[in-house]
Amino acid sequence: MFERCLKARQFEQAIGIALESYRLDVVEAAINESGKATELLDYALKVCHTLIVSMHFRHEVLKLLVKLYTSAEEPDYINICQCLMFLGDAEEVSAIFDRLLRGSEEDALLAYQVAFDLHENEIQQFLLQVGELMAKKQPQEPSAEEGAGGMDAGDGNQGSSSPNCLLSGRYTKLRDIISGTTPIKLHLDFLYNQNHADLQILKNIKSAIETRNSVCHSGTICANSLMHAGTTVDTFLRENLEWLSRATNWAKFSATAALGVIHKGHLEQGRSLMAPYLPRDGASGSPFSEGGALYALGLIHTGHGSSIRSFLLDSLRSSSNETIQHGACLGLGLASLGAADEEVYEDLKGTLYADSAVAGEASGIALGLLMVGSAHQGATELLAYAHDTQHEKIIRGIALGLALSVYGQEEDADTLIEQMTSDADPIMRYGGMQALGMAYCSSGNNSAIRRLLHFAVSDVSDDVRRAAVMFLGFVLCSAPEECPRIVSLLAESYNPHLRYGAAMAVGISCSGAGTNSAIELLEPLLTDAVDFVRQGALLAKALVLIQQPESVTGSFRKHLEKVIGDKHEDTLCKLGAILATGILDAGGRNVTIRLLSHSRYPRMEAIVGMAVFTQYWYWFPLTFFISLALSPTALIGLNADLKVPKLQVQCSCKASIFAYPEPVTTESKVSVAKAPTAVLSTTAKAKARKERESKKQDDGKTEDLAKAVEAEEAMETDDQAPSDEPEIHMLDNPARVVPAQEKYITFPQADSRYIPLKNSSTGIVMLRDLRPSEPVELVASEAPNARAGNASAGGEANPTENEPEPPQPFEYVPPS
Questions:
Q1: Of residues 590 and 714, more confidently modeled
Q2: What is the number of alpha carbons within 13 Å of residue 407 lying toward its C-beta?
Q3: What is the secondary structure of 576-596 as a DSSP string?
């Protein structure tokens, strides 16, 4: 069969059959004999990630592909490094970077592009290893004395030191990319400068909800944080300090934590922004505000918390208040996401073993965040403690933490999954469903799908059944068109928990895709008889429709407005509508929810954030974890200095199709349905007789009147006819490019100074300068750190806010 395929030059079929039969020698032979090695290598890589079930065999295939990519005339370093990332070979990746940085300027550009692509996959432990290796290889820059001596000695010494400076500068730039400093700053500037959040929508929600309804009050604060996620704009909070001060106890904790979502990524000033609310020596503030501030600090520094690690550890060790410990644990877990730090692990474990329900739940989740994807050996110990403790909150935290620790482990996690799914405690079985979804995330594994469906229809616990259906969305997130078909029958189940799970599964797997089959499945659930099913359907539809054109989302926005304004609507449903409004306009209408990177690999941080977000069912402050899944819809072109040059890209469609929604200019008026007026039969008869008589009189005038109306409408149309909108328009760098718009984007080729290093219409793209001798014109943008002040969750003015200017000197003359 192989020989027949090779003779007929059906190389794709030969590779497919060879992979199914585990014949790597045939794969290598087919690629080498084809004469089109690059195309077949890309095809084999795609098949490897989508169709091969065994993770161990997949790694063997990746090793072969790395060998074949490397032996090509022009090695594809982007795909080589992606393969090495999945193999965990940080040493080889750092060697490739070292080789590229020591080459030409174009080689250095390629190194930067590879680094940006690796950072997008968010495998933190791997990135930390690469960063440490690059730090060891970086050449030292010459000191000022050496530089001066070199200049005095003549051109020879100067020439020998200059290349060393250039190489060291390249290393510094690459390490800034790998560590996240550069991409986070670029996205922060983009979200701040392009912010189009509509404050009138929040004002309408605030006026529509009841004053005493603390659930909707907290929901509105959360919606505001999502609408301004990463923009650093907290205008709504500062304008409504008195309203904000109504938050008490855990609502105050959430309100303070919301600032972390707004300022997410503001690494330089994150701690100073939260300073008024953080624990201070010798000062006792509200534990809820202090705990929320520690949680917010973790949200700001998610996955990049080396600068605040020691502060969070000290806060955890020095406090005996369980609320502050709760915030410190969540903050530590977020700041050390995927770092597998042993010192942090021991401190969190100590907090867990203190057997405090509130602090223990957070420490269980934080342990999972810290060890995400590492399958830590402490799982057996945590399982044993979950059976010993009497606190359900601690058991639930441990279950979620264990599920996060097996992220992406596939069959290697089967032993732990079997232990959890066969446990007598329904909370541990619930965690087993989460572990199945995390271990086989984006794999589309048939065995995992079969097991989740089995528990969805057979377990005695509604919570377990709901989780089994919901986490199908994570397994199928790489094939969003399949999920609605698989859960369609469950969406019609008599059990409302299954209907809720089906809605959320579709929302997770089809997030940001705008899939028609997903919208059709969710539509009947919006009018379900059970309130939490309607809540799930509203959230899921917002996840599906985020960053879709206004022609698609307009009717859903009106439905959300109606639900929020209906005084007879259930509180749970109102909360879902408020959060859905925040999701729909997240990040100033410049972000989408993207569980896969642009290269179609799973984004660890996004998937973890979405998994923890689903636990808002039990603990509302976990809602903020959805901010981890937000990804800017930006096309940012960079030159060799990692600066943003002035450049335009072409979009081959009308500008209005993907434009921002029109702002809401007036306060919405909620219409209340009136009861129908009773009409007597005699009145109806008299009215009908009168209409017949008037019709006879007007018959002669009808035709003339119709002609006059048509003529008037024609005149109005001629007067108000808009000019034809061009079919092509240009976008300035950096540009907002939503997912549905990506296929229309092209870089101009004729007479263009810059051309992209790789064929991509979104994300961060390195640009090759064809006219390097000409002066560079850069894009001017206002940095968010130029702003001062933020809102207090307690309702007081921020003490760090800029004081007004003092008055001019004057002489006081008392009245006589």
A1: 590
A2: 28
A3: HHHHHHHHHTHHHHTEEE-SB
